[in-house]
Design brief:
Layout (H helix, E strand, L loop, with lengths): L2 H8 L6 E5 L6 H14 L4 E5 L4 H12 L9 E5 H11 L3 H10 L2 H15 L8 E6 L7 H8 L2 E11 L14 H6 L7 E2 L11 H11 L17
Parallel strand pairs: 1-5, 1-6, 2-3, 2-4, 4-5
């Protein structure tokens, strides 16, 4: 990690809530994994949540490499958001209520609102609480989903949201207004990762030019580079 990435991975904000944004290849997932590993090594319980059902496998590999003690792995739960909601409902003994969700409404409404609300309501049913909840692909999350996860955070715990609005495939990033951010526990500005380590430096001007011409400026993260390559 570079100095900025390492600071974000090792440090905690006073509130315990942090949001990080940056372009693809800037190390957002790397920072999240390093933070998860550090907390797990300290004996804290960590929930790592994604939107994509396969991304958590990649994050798990990053976390395993970063752990100081392999036994700390048992302190971390990896899951995608909707699978977590389902498990929370089942653990609460609400399997029938979960099944009923799918009988009437369409899948879109169930996944967007009804299932998160049911999972949130099960908070009182002795569901597991976590010292830290770390969310990747934040641009694909809705504020309701984030606030559902918040209900399962232990007092004094911490939460991390990493996002890249340029990868807003599902059009949900626009829901994260500043009012929504304030209601989600965030204060101050985003932490920013600017340097792209994924693309060759020669390709970056083309990427930046494309983004400047064809992507909405408010939702595009333009990468920079400090790398040098051999000819």
């Amino acid at each position: 990690m570079d100095a900025n990435q390492r600071m974000l991975a090792e440090d905690r904000t006073s509130s315990g809530f942090r949001r990080i944004k940056g372009p693809a290849g800037s190390g957002k997932s790397l920072v999240l994994a390093a933070r998860a590993a550090k907390l797990a090594d300290e004996g804290k319980s960590v929930l790592v949540a994604t939107y994509n059902i396969t991304l958590w496998h990649y994050l798990r590999d990053l976390v395993v490499r970063a752990l100081s003690d392999a036994r700390s792995y048992r302190n971390i739960v990896f899951v995608n958001f909707h699978s977590w909601c389902k498990q929370v409902c089942i653990d609460a003994g609400w399997g029938n209520r979960y099944d009923d969700l799918w009988k009437d409404g369409g899948a879109g409404a169930v996944l967007a609102t009804e299932l998160p609300k049911l999972a949130s309501a099960s908070e009182a049913a002795d569901a597991p609480r976590y010292d830290a909840i770390l969310v990747d692909e934040g641009q694909d999350y809705q504020p309701l989903w984030w606030n559902t996860l918040r209900r399962f955070l232990k007092p004094g715990g911490e939460m991390l949201l990493v996002a890249d609005a340029t990868q807003d495939v599902y059009g949900t990033a626009c829901a994260w207004t500043e009012d929504a951010m304030s209601g989600a526990g965030f204060r101050g500005s985003w932490a920013q990762l600017d340097i792209c380590y994924r693309l060759p430096p020669a390709a970056l001007p083309l990427v930046r030019d494309f983004a400047a011409r064809f992507l909405p400026i408010e939702s595009s993260e333009l990468p920079t580079s400090t790398q040098h390559t051999l000819d």
